[in-house]
Amino acid sequence: MFTLPRNSQWDDRSDIGMGVRSSLGHIDFPRLRDGGVDCQVFAISSVRDRTRPYALRTAMEMIDIFYSECAAHQDAVTPVTTHGEIVKAAAEGKVAAMLSIEGADIIEGKVGMLRVFHRLGVRMVGLVHSLRNELADGVADGRTGGGLSGLGVEAVEELDRLGMLIDVSHLSDAGFWDLMDVAKGPVMASHSNARAVCDHPRNMTDDMIRAMADRGGVMGMNFAPGFVHPTLATVQGVVDHIDHIVSLVGPDHVGLGSDFDGIPYTPKGLEDVTKMPNITAELFERGYSEEDIRKVLGENHLRLMREMLG
Known about the structure:
This protein is α/β, with parallel strands linked by helices and 310 residues long. The protein has a domain at 191-310: Metal-dependent hydrolases (TIM Barrel), CATH 3.20.20. 42% of the residues lie in helices and 13% in strands. The protein has helices spanning 8-12, 29-34, 48-51, 55-72, 83-91, 112-119, 150-162, 173-182, 206-214, 225-228, 235-249, 277-285, 290-309, and strands at 2-3, 39-45, 77-79, 95-102, 122-126, 165-167, 188-189, 218-222, 254-258. α11 packs across α12. The two termini are 21 Å apart.
């Protein structure tokens, strides 16, 4: 997952745009094609020290940048909201670009704003961005041990009604289990790893992974080094997480999340999006079948999007 705009790396290249190949950050449209990426999710982030007290306005500015960049480079990228549009974009040799929300602080307490964001093309929503908000406790701010608030339950019910993907990454453990009780359909973890491999609260326990898989969900591997390995993060370490998840629930519930340009550092061998084929090579090296590798590289996410988005 790539967050737009997120950090100083994007600020440094704000005059360049996404259509120009650059050594800044982790992705741009040319490098996405080099890395073999057919669909990229762009997150509208509610990092509190940047968006407060103008979370909603900042989100609208991000959406404007997203559509402006897509329009300026329509030969290379196209915005999408459905599975069919993703497949069509790939057939045309374009990168499919989908919008998500990473932290629903941006609805400013109004569930109706989810309907507005749906009309603007958002198809995936994470309730929190690590810190507690009006909807739920985040993983970095869960001292109370609380799950979803009343407003959070209303938001989940509306997301189910709209057919939007619900993202459990960044939720506290209590929030995850509360969400699983409330949500009707499958959920996803857009960028979370396995806690049994790397003991970090942003990663998911085996019980969480099983529960999500039982609902037909998919989790995308996060490349943040601290979530991959406590001391030395490598592309092999990322695949260690894939191995563990496959051993628990089979190959149908794991994919790639990355968090490129949302993290300051990357694992060795995954320095930017052009290095994504290194994951494919490592999976082949470990004896994964071609069918299962296709699932990890995108077919699992496509199956979920076909089911949820049409």
